[in-house]
Design brief:
Strands 1-2 form a two-stranded antiparallel sheet. With 256 residues, the protein is mainly α. The longest helix is centred in the last third of the chain and has 45 residues. Helix 6 packs antiparallel against helix 7. It has seven helices and two strands, in the order H-H-H-E-E-H-H-H-H.
Length: 256
């Protein structure tokens, strides 16, 4: 019985660890590994003690146990992947904004992925991450993986056609979300370009490249400052949509 309990504990740990490795919230590279593993084991112990202490799960051969581990990793990775999609949409929105206001060549190193990311994308991502913690999104994410066993019991998750369709849909929707986030700034910069076009036609001797680019950057920065409250207020709805999508993905992993 003790061996069976330990095997169930490992299965719970694998699902929890999958989230901590994939999620941009808990899996950031600047978070020490011992902290990630420590929190994973702590949460695993809490979930195991409350739900699986008297589990009667029967495990057969080593191959069957390996298959169960693979399924549990898949569930954790799926939850983390969906959160990654939403935060990547914010980065993409920052890239669109940078291109519009003239910061397209300005990139910074992101410690999470160790790659160059757009300046405004990194700025908006930091704001989104702060708002995520302020709105208790990290607690909600932990609750989701804890209650995920009610939707997908241990060893019953699978890659289904419905899951693949949902992930493709979420990926496509992330681009639409990026455009929605960047649309106010894009609209203001577009109006400024129209105004410069009229001005150039009125005053042909004016060098639009010398005068227009700094003013366009200034207008873009002012637009970003104006729409920051709107962006922060919209994050709650974005995160609610993310949590709903995670629930849909979990239900889509069950074989009919």
């Amino acid at each position: 019985m003790d061996i069976l309990r330990f095997q169930v504990f490992l299965l719970v740990l694998v699902r929890m660890t999958g989230l901590f490795l994939m999620s941009p919230v808990f899996g950031r590279q600047n978070i020490p590994n011992y902290l990630k593993w420590g929190l994973s084991i702590l949460l695993t112990y809490i979930v195991f003690s409350n739900r699986f202490l008297d589990s009667q799960l029967e495990l057969g051969s080593f191959l069957e146990f390996a298959i169960l581990i693979t399924r549990e990793v898949l569930i954790g990775f799926t939850i983390g992947f969906i959160t990654t999609i939403f935060f990547s949409a914010i980065w993409t929105a920052g890239q669109l904004i940078d291109t519009q206001i003239g910061f397209g060549m300005v990139n910074v190193i992101d410690p999470q992925s160790s790659i160059q990311v757009p300046l405004m994308g990194n700025f908006k991502n930091i704001l989104a991450l702060l708002a995520f913690f302020v709105l208790d999104g990290h607690h909600t994410l932990i609750k989701i993986i804890s209650f995920s066993y009610d939707i997908v019991p241990i060893g019953e998750g699978a890659v289904t056609g419905e899951l693949v369709t949902l992930l493709i849909k979420f990926f496509a929707n992330s681009f639409a979300l990026s455009v929605k986030i960047a649309l106010p700034i894009i609209a203001m910069t577009f109006l400024s370009e129209v105004a410069f076009g009229i001005l150039v036609r009125t005053v042909p001797q004016m060098n639009v490249f010398i005068v227009g680019i700094p003013i366009k950057i200034l207008i873009g920065l002012i637009a970003i400052l104006i729409f920051i409250p709107l962006f922060i207020n919209s994050l709650k709805g974005i995160y609610d949509g993310m949590f709903n999508d995670i629930g849909k993905a979990l239900r889509g992993m069950m074989l009919k």
